[in-house]
Design a protein that fits this description.
It is built from 8 helices and 5 strands. The protein is α/β, with parallel strands linked by helices. A 5-stranded parallel β-sheet has the order 2-3-1-4-5, with helices on both faces. The longest helix is centred in the middle third of the chain and has 29 residues, at 74-102. The structure holds thymidine-5'-phosphate.
Length: 236
Amino acid sequence: MRGILITFEGIDGSGKSTVIAEIARKLAEGERLPFRGKHFLFTAEPTEGEEGHLIREKLKRDSQTTRGQASRTRKAEQLEELFLFMADHAHHLEETVLPALEQGMVVISDRYSDSRVAYQGATLQGIVPHPLEWVRELHRPWSIVPDKTILFSIDPALAVERCLSRSEETGTSQMSKDPEKFEREEFLKEVAENFDRMAKGEPERFVTIDANCAKAEILEETMRVLAELLSETERP
Ligand code: TMP
């Protein structure tokens, strides 16, 4: 029996990773949840594998300059980023996602190919024609589309504030200067618009959650949506 693939998407600072971690913790501690009894696998992109580490190193270097910024090597940089994310996805799919689905598990992925369509769809503007469609087509012949996708929708200004306070707490703030903050917000606005467009284009797959509210409310709403999706996608 094939399992179910549910992906979580949204811009940085939308709070999806915190909510996923909380659900995983509740399940591990045996709390009574509306979807207890299913076998879950929690995973993420970028992964913890070799390609995922390369990407994180690259993102860390690039955050010293601002992502999406025009430069002499911008085209090569952005294409490199896309193909690194895709290489990571290929490994993730083959080594983690497909085997778990074959075992009938519920696979919850914190980001998946839609992140590429939304983020690289923004960074590749002006580099390739119709970048969203192009990135989607690059995946089509060999990847699989999630059964359901939960999109955390948040005001980009609030998301940037959340990222800033989180990085200040951990002492890793690299984005506290005003112009960088402004550029980051502009970039995330484009990504958020891409996600919205994608959700409108596939209303049967996407469920949008309002991530502007308090963490406890978002968690409750996510668990409600997840329980509903799992009962909807129940296979006889
Ligand atoms: P994370 O914060 O969810 O770990 O993701 C790291 C960054 O990578 C985040 O800014 C989103 C970005 N990203 C892409 O640009 N394309 C992708 O395909 C993925 C998976 C993430």
